[in-house]
Amino acid sequence: MEENQVxxxxxxxIVEEFHLENETEVIVSIKDQKIVIEPKNKVVxxxxxxxxxxxIPTLVIxxxxxxxxxxxxxxxxALVGPYSIANFVLxxxxxxxxxxxxxxxxxxxxxxxxxxxxxxxxxNFPAILLSFIVIxxxxxxxxxxxxxxxxxxATLDRYTATxxxxxxxxxxxxxxxxxxxxxxxxxxxxxxIFVIIxxxxxxxxxxxxxxxxxxxxxxxxxxxxxxxxxxNVTLMFSSxxxxxxIDSLFVELQKAIPHSKQLTILRVLLTLTALDLGAVGLFPxxxxxxxxxxxxxxxxxxxxxxxxxxxxxKWLLPKVSKEFLTISYLIAVxxxxxxxxxQVVGYxxxxxxxxxxxxxxxxxxxxxLQNLQKMAQNIxxxxxxxxxxxxxxxxxxx
Length: 398
Known about the structure:
It comes from Enterococcus quebecensis. By secondary structure, the chain is mainly alpha-helical.
């Protein structure tokens, strides 16, 4: 049975971006009920580069680790502790991962390798790099904390320790290289969610006062809290990530919709919201000192900005879906109800009020960013092409 042949003309933007000018074949596949067209040489390329390059820094760092063990005449080294494999991974391993991230991000920006990070701008790079470092260090700390509880007092000889160190550093480098090559606005949003939720939960868990919730949510960032820096740094890093994400999204949106006053106002309001979130962490809650009351003021401004955004979103973003508008208004009504239950009725405690307000506002911000991503994707990277059926006689001649 002969296959029906069709002809599809690809847009010029796709041909130039994927360097298909001299190509005669592409890979066509079906994924999640979608037709996916990929350059033929892309499938093998990415994995080969990743496997080759994450092994090189891993071997170099592992060699330095083994040399140090010989130089310091250490026959046994602890798995975790002050002088341990864990400490070397958190220092040498993280340093290796940072250099790998920077190296591959630069290569991607120069179009020397295939990457999804081409739309990430240099001005946003420091915030993104710091965020990945925080996530990496946080993950390693939790991992080695668990390992320390499972293998109490475990020590290894220098060769076994080097092999284990090699595995850990290899995973670190692979994670950082993969991240550098695959940063997209969608992943930045997921990163933002992880940083905020992970940082807040870590602050709750490590707080020395397990009754912190009897004070208020902001207590996690006060000097009385054991790990207040984690809570405050979480808010400041989240602020930087939001600014980077907003910048990336609106550059793409304003390419397709130039000179839009609504988009400009929305961008300014979202940027102010992000900066205000950072200010909440920068000025912790205190009842004494020169910064007394500033925390409450910036937290209040954050609420006002969210309310203005929700009420004005229909005008600021005319093409937004009805579902998102409905959810936005439901969140606004819920926020008002929470305020009434706290300030008027007195039913909610301060901690519950702050937690509910924070979760509702953060959820809406994430939904808005996801809608902006979808809009930018549909405008700039979605194309309508014509499918031309080739008659069977013509195909036989070909």
